[in-house]
Write a structure and sequence with these properties.
Number of domains: 1
Radius of gyration: 18 Å
Order of helices and strands: EEEEEEEEEEEEEEEEEHEE
CATH class: Mainly Beta
Strand content: 35-45%
GO cellular component, one term: extracellular space
Number of helices: 1
CATH architecture: Sandwich
CATH topology: Jelly Rolls
Subcellular location: Secreted
Helix content: under 10%
Structural class: mainly beta
Bound molecules: calcium ion
Shape: globular
GO molecular function: complement component C1q complex binding; metal ion binding
Cofactor: Ca(2+)
Number of strands: 19
Pfam family, one: Pentaxin
Distance between the termini: 19 Å
Length: 271
Amino acid sequence: MLFLSEMPGCFFRLRPLVVQAPFGESSRKNWRANTVLEEVQESINWDPKRWVRNNANVPFFPPDLQKKVLVFPKASNNAAVFLNAEVQQPLTSVTVCLRYYTLLTRAYGLFSYATKQGDNDLLLYKLLPNQYRLYVGGSSVTFTLPEKPASRPRWEHICMSWDSATGLVELWVNGYPLPRMGLKKGYSINPEASIVLGQDQNQGFLGWVFDINTSFQGEMTDVYMWDRVLSADEVNLVWNDHSVSNSLINWSSLDYEIRNYVMIMPSLISA
Ligand SMILES: [Ca+2]
């Protein structure tokens, strides 16, 4: 379990190391394991290589986040989780799935994929409790769900996909698809991205910046991304917590970096 506390002017950085799996080949060629807790001075121009350690004495943490959740305990303009994804070529189709739990009623960013083509090259954004806004290439479509008062707060699972050939955007909420909409037909999403959970990245003077008023506060888990549109059966598998192969981002072997006040905790929901 990782305990990360807030410190003004500093952020804690988790740098996953790539090591060979001790039990033979895993589904990925390299087993991303062993995160190292580093306290470093906040710097815009940090060099990732500086923080890689290959020391047997460093703390060891299990790489598998199954049954774990990310807790974003409070609204902020600096807390986020950065993800590394092995995107090799421009994305002409994509699916992003995640599960989250919040009591927020304002807008917030869930998954932000910013590139030099724009801060909203791919963005999952919640506008209202019953309204999702999905961006591709800076354009957006808004899905408005029928308002049904929930009897109790609950986790929500979403899968969003987009396909360049048709321009069609799918949004699945708790395993149910909404009527498809279209945008950016023929577009390609840049493979070089800054990928962030829990914030909407915006273009600032010196780089990407966050806005406390669109920050996520709550819990998040089961984050996945594929460079294809998942079939209905596959979305159903993901919703039911089964694995679907060949993902670019995989919750079970997440390559991530935590900035500021985000905690990794056991899920409070029993299996
Ligand atoms: Ca943005």
